[in-house]
Specification:
This protein is an alpha/beta fold. The chain has a single domain, classed as 3-Layer(aba) Sandwich (Carbamate kinase), CATH 3.40.1160.10. It has nine helices and eleven strands. The chain has a nine-stranded mixed β-sheet, with helices on both faces. Strands 7-8 form a two-stranded antiparallel ribbon. Helix 2 crosses helix 4 and helix 6 runs parallel beside helix 8.
């Protein structure tokens, strides 16, 4: 592993579940500080870092619809949850001296900038971490799709998919004992096997933009830094 980053610009996809740690709901005060510290270290390496964050630690649109809410309303609630998470992460990063901007796909100008592609790229060029919130701004699209979309729009060198497992498996390792880790695969492998690690729309977007996807375990301290420095952590999905 080289101390020099192999990527100039990355987009990190964080799930909302990452924010809650071992608690059943909300934002964990035990998770955010070390995560922000590690992101600050990656920023210190000179890597232009953008983040898309989910909201599942607060509410998921599809879960809200299952409880009787209209699906569109539920998805809007989920988008707002991602804004809450983005503001929490922004605060933690700025406490560590990292200049940060939150951009939202739905306008909430009192708390964050609206998403403007050229402005986002300019922030990254100036060394600011940019956190994209509110998904794509549209119902029925996941934050994985938002991550692939934003990665394409900002010309990211890679999409880093942070998960609770060690990478891409042949099946859900939490449900099937025989699931094995796949270290390298092409985009069609994910699409053909309908693996739930990332939805098909997101994979197709990355395939069309030729953006490699690195899937890794966020719960292992230091993994984000290892990935950007070129260590073979987790799984790599790309054109083989």
């Amino acid at each position: 592993m080289s101390a020099t980053p192999i990527y100039r610009r990355v987009l990190l996809k964080l799930s909302g579940e990452v924010m809650m740690g071992n608690q059943p709901f909300g934002i964990s005060s035990e998770v955010i500080p070390p995560l922000a510290t590690e992101l600050a270290e990656v920023h210190g390496l000179g890597v232009e870092t953008a983040i898309v964050i989910g909201g599942g630690n607060i509410i998921r649109g599809i879960q809200a619809s299952e409880k009787g809410f209209d699906r569109v309303t539920g998805d809007l609630m989920g988008m707002l949850a991602t804004v809450i998470n983005a503001l929490a992460l922004q605060d933690a990063l700025e406490q560590r001296g990292v200049a940060t901007r939150v951009q939202t796909a739905i306008e909430i100008r009192q708390v964050a900038e609206p998403f403007i592609r050229r402005r986002a790229i300019r922030h990254l060029e100036k060394g600011r971490v940019v956190i994209f919130a509110a998904g794509t701004g549209n119902p029925f699209f996941t934050t994985d799709s938002a991550a692939a979309l934003r990665a394409s729009e900002i010309h990211a060198d890679a999409l880093l998919k942070a998960t609770k497992v060690d990478g891409l498996y042949t099946a859900d390792p939490n449900r099937e004992a025989g699931a094995t880790l796949v270290k390298k695969a092409d985009y069609s492998y994910l699409l053909q096997h309908s693996l739930k690690i990332m939805d098909a729309a997101a994979v197709s977007l990355c395939q069309n933009s030729s953006i490699p996807i690195r899937i890794f375990n966020i719960r292992v301290p230091g993994n984000i830094k290892r990935v950007v420095q070129g260590e073979d952590v987790g799984s790599l999905v790309s054109r083989e």
